[in-house]
Amino acid sequence: MKQEYFSLKKRVRSFGYAFNGIKILFRYEHNARIHSCVTILVIAAGIWFNISINEWIAIALACGIVLAAESFNSAIESLCDLVSPQQNPIIKKVKDLAAAAVLFTAIAALIVGCIIFIPYIIS
Ligand SMILES: Nc1ncnc2c1ncn2[C@@H]1O[C@H](COP(=O)(O)OP(=O)(O)OP(=O)(O)O)[C@@H](O)[C@H]1O
Prior knowledge:
The protein is mainly α. The chain has a single domain (26-122), classed as Helix Hairpins (Orthogonal Bundle). The protein has 4 helices and no strands. It has helices spanning 8-28, 30-49, 53-83, 89-122. The longest helix has 34 residues, at 89-122. The radius of gyration is 18 Å and the shape is globular. The mean pLDDT is 94. Bound molecules: adenosine-5'-triphosphate. Adenosine-5'-triphosphate binds next to helix 2 and helix 4.
């Protein structure tokens, strides 16, 4: 790998690329929009029930991981579409595995949400 001097300007530009990725994610990926709506509802519920700091940490990690997985999934899908616009069993496997990763994180986030909010709802 080529060695480069640290450049603050370049680091700021990299942040710009990442924010552009977020913009692309929410503009074109419908699942990401659903996940962000759920995230907003969960934040509202957290404020309503006045959940603890540790519960906020768990919620932040769960929501962040789902959105990160969704972003990776979208990147993989785009790459697959570029590499093989025609039907291909390997592309199907790759896309389905990437989708499974999102599902795993969503199920884990749902479990975290249930563990945190069900006791508040019951009481
Ligand atoms: N080139 C391809 N070759 C083989 N199977 C494909 C191909 N493209 C998509 N598939 C199959 O069709 C499914 C749906 O593909 P698609 O790219 O529409 O994903 P999606 O998750 O339904 O879409 P989105 O996330 O954009 O709503 C994939 O999970 C995969 O099983």
